[in-house]
Amino acid sequence: MEAASITIVEVGYRMQRIVSALGLALVAAAVVAVALMASGLSVPATAAADDQAAIKLFQDKKCNRCHEVKVAGIVKAKAPKQEEEGEEGDEVVLKEEKKVDPPDLSGVGVKRDADYLTNWLQKRVANDDGRKHKKRFTGKPEELKTLVDWLLTLKSPVEEKK
Ligand code: HEC
Predict the structure, then answer these.
(1) Average pLDDT rounded to a whole number, residues 130-152
(2) 46 and 55 Cβ atoms separated by less than 8 Å
(3) Which H/E stretch holds residue 5?
(4) Under CATH, domain 43-162 is a member of which superfamily?
(5) What is the pTM of this model?
């Protein structure tokens, strides 16, 4: 009898700790959210969950260092010069960048399909101008799929910079 009541007390105590840990996690999440918003990295509140995962990837994989996606509220991130140096392969990339402007991807879903984008992001295909992408995608296959699925939904007209 005594042992059983101790167990119940113990369980109660553990649950209390779990609850307070959850509370802390919530507070931490709120702090992170506010910090993200303050640094301009927040995703638009209207985006669906899948979109938000893709937009987060787009930022985590630094696609937004080169690309805007105006329709999704993504503007180009201005990375500090020092941070850009020292990163693998960037020297070449930054030189080439001057020649070809990375397009706003707001309308990429109109002219591209899943196969093309999947291959393009892995530098397996060249575009009509004979150029391959600047960056090879380095994430997991499911991350690539999340990104590609989202890119295909982007069908807003974009002004051609010519
Ligand atoms: C170093 C700069 C840079 C980074 C980083 C970069 N891109 Fe690009 N991207 C470009 C440039 C430049 C082009 C245009 C290529 C051309 O026309 O030759 C391009 C083209 C594209 C296109 C093709 C658009 C079309 O209609 O053909 C897609 C899609 C794309 N990028 C997606 C991404 C994604 C997703 C990421 C992140 C995983 C990314 N890019 C990261 C520079 C970059």
Answers:
(1) 97
(2) no
(3) helix 2-38
(4) Cytochrome c-like domain (1.10.760.10)
(5) 0.68
